[in-house]
Amino acid sequence: MRAAIFIDGAYVLSHLKQTNLAPNYRDLADYLLKPLRKSVPLDLLRCYFYYCPPWMSPEPTDAEKKRMAEHEAFMEEITSLERWSVRLGKLQRRWDGHRETFEQKRVDVLLSVDMVRHTAAGHIQHAIVVAGDSDFIPAIESAKESGATVSLWCGDENTVHKDLVDLSDVVHRIDWKKFPVRKVKSEPGIIKIVQKKVEGINKRKPASARYRR
């Protein structure tokens, strides 16, 4: 039997943002598959990671260039992993009076399309979702109608919509103390990579649609 993993990247990273920790992506797929593999032999089709590149103004500041360079290094790290694929949405800037806010766009659609496509075609029998947004409910309903089992991984109750929990076949509450993580380090090698990418950004226009596979 085969499974695919669908991860709302912002959902995971927002929980770890204040801890100086980042997911250990190399071990993450096995961690999410482990409960299912206790009862059924299971192969991984692909692990999809949905995210948005940072905002870049038409004439980006040095801070914006640095954030984009860090993002590109992050994307290269994930796409180098076996059976991992990145889907990028778009970060939209809004103004609430004088307050600047940013909102992810297209991420929920990209995740939903992938889930519905793979389950309807019979590519997978298990859909593993790491998310908390109710926007994914129609996709989960469709996946179940196609005969797939849907496992939801989520944090505390205040981080996930109740209807999403009720609809999923199996629910796993994430214990962040046991979640595969690593400390965020400012290693010299990483600093050099980011510096080179900043230099590259200085020579080109921002590219927000990279790493789609």
Number of helices: 7
Q: H/E series, N to C?
A: EHEHEHEEEHEHEHEEH
Terminal CA distance reads 23 Å
Arithmetic mean of pLDDT: 86
The number of distinct structural domains comes to 1
Structural class label = alpha/beta
Describe the model.
Helices cover 39% and strands 26% of the residues. It has 213 residues and is of the alpha/beta class. It has a single domain, classed as 5'-nuclease (Rossmann fold). The strands form three sheets. Strands 4-3-1-7-8-9 form a six-stranded parallel beta sheet, with helices on both faces. Strands 2-10 form a two-stranded antiparallel ribbon. A two-stranded antiparallel sheet has the order 5-6. β7, α5 and β8 form a beta-alpha-beta unit. The chain is globular, with a radius of gyration of 18 Å.
Topology (elements, then pairings):
Layout: E1 2-8, H1 9-16, E2 21-23, H2 25-37, E3 43-51, H3 62-79, E4 84-88, E5 90-96, E6 99-105, H4 107-120, E7 126-130, H5 137-145, E8 149-154, H6 162-167, E9 170-173, E10 181-183, H7 188-202
Parallel strand pairs: 1-3, 1-7, 3-4, 7-8, 8-9
Antiparallel strand pairs: 2-10, 5-6
Helix pairs in contact: 3-7, 4-5
